[in-house]
Amino acid sequence: MVSRAEFERLANLDTSKLSDIERAHRFYYILMAGWGGELNYPRFQTSISDGGHGNRLIGALKYLRQRIEPVYERLQKVIIENLDWKACFDRYDRPNTVMYIDPPYPDNGCNYTLNG
What we know:
This protein has one domain (4-115). 45% of the residues lie in helices and 0% in strands. The chain is built from six helices and no strands.
C-alpha cells in the first residue's frame, strides 16, 4: 500500500536511529513514492495521468526482485569507502584494482550541503 501518511512518516524519521535495513527501506520508499528522488526535500507524488495510477511505487514493487538481484550480485566484490583519496589509495591501490574516485567540485556553484 502506498500512502501519503506513510511517506510523510518515513520522510520525517531521524535516520541516525535507524538500522541499515530501515534506512534502505526508507530510501527506496521515498525515492519511488516521491517526485525527483530528493531525500532532502521529499515530495509525495500524485498523478492521474502517469500510467502508475498515482504512484510509481506500486509498479516498482512488482519488479523489485528483478531490479535488486543484479545490484546484489554486482556488489558482492565492491568496497564503498568514505576516505580521503590518499588514504583510499594507500589502502586499496593494486595492479588489479579499479577505483572510481568522485572528487569534490568546489567551483561549480553547487551547495553540497543542500544538494549533495
